[in-house]
Design brief:
434 residues; Rossmann fold; Ubiquitin-like (UB roll); 3 domains
Length: 434
């Protein structure tokens, strides 16, 4: 069973009803990591993050220390935190923003000091009403406490931090689209190169973009040392990670687990975690890292929760969202609903994504509603191959951002393993599932 003895790094305060308040934060060691960081040189803080081997928790899994090192030799102008968590069934950052906003703020301040940035932004999904309210209130309290502003905590370092609510577009979770939105423009991804944020970011200046969970790890890393973090999990997947578990499980929720030392079976079936399938049924399929990830199946349950281990099997940990589908699930309907989401959220800038997503959604719609044809299965795969040539993972790029090439994942996964269900929809007008 699972290894539940690892320390809770980012969820240690979640059990307190007042975990979001400054009083509770200070009573549980809050801002001590920042105080320690301010006694160190910026390069020493960066060295601790490097030693931790902290992979970004936003989806791509790029090492935070390496991302910072791309800019260390030049002046960094801005630090931007991506809190636009908009993918279906992904809610781990939402939890951190609502339940421990000061921890996020402390992590941002540590990163800003390490990078010597005097202006930082937290870009949060505007629909997170409670989270937005608590984060802004926490920031106001942090200013009053002296942790943000001029010469923070009696040091020589000054910083201004702004909470910026987004307008609800999924595409703004892509870092360059987020920067466009932060500048007041429409959320269109930028072409990379040349618009890597490290080179040409916010307002055309060098910018570091990090995820909410990534920042929330920094206070613990500085307080306990990068080596202590690296001792958890296995290189390169070190430390703990949050997993948003949803779908057909008894105990959906957010769980912090040590990476690699636990498996998907542990997460889904451990009584202290997911608790198993409510109906007593079997796992038919599960999505290991957000709805843009290729699906896994019952035979993949013993895959360790590690970046490389999941990638070796042709998928990704991605956004940390694990969606379980039991044997009562209609796979045609599941693929259609995911595709419908992507079709609606496409920004429309690139033809393969703008047009292809709509075509795929319409074909799946007619299959789901009993109007499909046998040739629709090959047509779906042909369209998918045009959007993501080869249908491999990671996908081949035909668009400016990865949204378009991610669309075929669910369709290819469903047809490859459940072709009989698609044929049943054609021949019988649907499947036997409700």
């Amino acid at each position: 069973m699972s290894q539940l003895t690892a320390p809770k790094i980012v969820t240690s305060r979640i059990g307190f009803d007042d975990s979001f308040t400054l009083d509770r934060f200070l009573a549980t060691g809050g801002y001590e990591g920042l105080r320690k960081a301010l006694t160190m040189s910026p390069s020493e803080v960066c060295a601790q993050v490097d030693a931790a081997s902290l992979l970004g928790r936003g989806g791509a899994g790029f090492p935070a220390g390496r991302k910072w090192s791309m800019l260390r030799k030049n002046d960094v102008s801005y630090l931007v935190i991506n809190g636009d968590e908009s993918e279906p069934a992904t809610f781990k950052d939402h939890l951190l923003i609502e339940r421990d906003p000061h921890q996020l703020i402390e992590g941002v301040l540590i990163a800003a000091y390490a990078l010597q940035v005097n202006q930082a932004f937290i870009f949060i999904r505007g629909e997170f009403a409670l989270g937005l309210e608590r984060l802004q209130s926490a920031l106001n309290d942090a200013y009053a406490y002296g942790a943000v502003g001029t010469k923070i905590l009696n040091s020589s370092f000054s910083i201004d931090l702004v909470v910026h609510p987004g307008a609800g577009a999924y595409i703004c979770g892509e870092e360059t689209s987020l920067l466009e939105s932060l500048e007041g423009k429409r959320g269109f991804p930028r072409i990379k190169p040349p618009f890597f944020p490290a080179a040409i970011g916010l307002y055309g200046e060098p910018t570091v973009v990090n995820n909410v969970e990534t920042m929330s790890n920094l206070p613990w890393i500085i307080s306990n040392g990068g080596d202590a973090f690296a001792a958890l999990g296995e290189t390169p997947s070190t430390g703990t990670r949050l997993f948003a578990l949803a779908g057909h499980v008894r105990n959906p929720g957010v769980y912090e687990l040590e990476m690699v030392k636990n498996t998907f079976r542990d997460l889904i079936f451990d009584p202290a975690l997911g608790g198993g399938i409510p109906s007593g049924g079997r796992v038919k399929a599960f999505i290991p890292g957000g709805v843009s990830a290729p699906w896994f199946y019952e035979e993949d349950l013993d895959t360790p929760l590690g970046q490389g281990q999941v990638a070796d099997k042709g998928s990704m940990l991605g956004s940390g969202s694990v969606v379980v589908m039991d044997d009562s699930t209609c796979m045609v309907r599941a693929a259609w609903r995911i595709t419908r989401f992507f079709s609606r959220e496409s920004c429309g800038q690139c033809t393969p994504c703008r047009e292809g997503s709509g075509w795929l959604e319409r074909i799946l719609y007619r299959l789901e509603h009993g109007e499909g044809r046998v040739e629709d299965l090959d047509l779906l795969l042909d369209l998918c191959d045009n959007i993501a040539p080869g249908l491999s993972w990671p996908p081949q790029q035909t668009t400016i951002c990865v949204l378009g090439p991610s669309i075929p994942s669910s369709i290819h996964s469903a047809i490859s393993h459940f072709r009989d269900e698609f044929l049943a929809h054609v021949k019988e007008g649907g499947c036997s599932y409700a």
